[in-house]
Design brief:
This protein is an alpha+beta fold. It has 6 helices and 8 strands, in the order E-E-H-H-H-E-E-E-H-E-H-E-E-H. The protein has one domain: Gcn5-related N-acetyltransferase (GNAT) (Aminopeptidase, 3-Layer(aba) Sandwich). The protein is globular, with a radius of gyration of 16 Å. The structure holds coenzyme A.
């Protein structure tokens, strides 16, 4: 899949927010905002890896490749309110094309960098919109994610979207030490059953 070449990467509109492909670019103020997010320990704790850098200049130099590398293995979208404010990012990475069906599978990552927006439904709406885009326009068949068992807010949101638990594992990472990690996933068929898709499922 060549994400850059495909004209299907479009801005996606929901009732209270939009998803804007990172390939559309970011204003200077938005880049500054994203860099500040990368410096926030609480955000980094829950999210894992929000792109940052040794300096703001280093961040700006590398961020477009990190958002949307030319190998098409990651696609990233800014989460933008109706008023035009960038409040977070949602992405799909480790994108692979399945041999038998030719459909795509990938891993979801999401965060609201503006913490005042947490717990108000924006994350759930962003993920639902994003999955609809992946399943309807980008030929995805399934999407999975990993989250800490302790991340109740994220888990509740993912469950509401329709993600189901695949497995639970005890893991270690230098950042958080020993912790329980959950793998959750959702198929195009399940998303269609719960939310309805405007294209036929196969
Ligand atoms: C995870 C995240 C994207 C979810 O977005 P959000 O807009 O905050 O989530 P929503 O408001 O849509 O849904 C949150 C759910 O948790 C509940 N909730 C809200 N605050 C909570 C809290 N402090 N503790 C537990 N549950 C909480 C909400 O009631 C809601 O559940 P409900 O729909 O059953 O009522 C966002 O919180 C975030 O960016 N967190 C930090 C980064 C992160 O954890 N990313 C995910 C990594 S896997």
């Amino acid at each position: 899949m060549d994400g850059r070449a495909s004209g299907r990467h479009i801005e996606v509109h929901g009732s209270s927010l939009s998803l804007r492909p990172a390939t559309f670019g970011f204003s200077e103020a938005e880049l500054q905002r994203r860099y500040q997010w990368s410096l926030d320990n609480e955000l980094q704790y829950w999210s894992g890896t929000i792109p940052g850098g040794r300096s703001y200049a280093d961040f700006v130099e590398n961020v477009s490749y990190r958002d949307w590398p030319s190998d098409g293995r990651r696609i990233s979208y800014g989460i933008v309110t109706r008023e035009g404010e960038l409040i977070g990012m949602v992405s799909c990475y480790n994108i692979e094309q399945m041999l038998v069906t030719g459909h795509m599978v990938g891993e979801l990552g999401v965060y609201l960098g503006e913490k005042t927006y947490w717990g108000s439904g924006y994350g759930t709406e962003a993920v639902t919109l994003f999955l609809r885009h992946l399943f309807e326009q980008l030929d995805f068949d399934a999407v999975y994610l990993h989250t800490y068992k302790s991340n109740i807010r994220a888990r509740r949101s993912y469950e509401r979207v329709g993600f189901e638990l695949d497995e639970e594992r005890r893991r270690y990472s230098p950042r958080v030490g020993y912790h329980d990690e959950l793998r959750m996933s959702i198929t195009r068929t399940r998303f269609n059953q719960l939310h309805g898709l405007q294209v036929a499922t196969s």
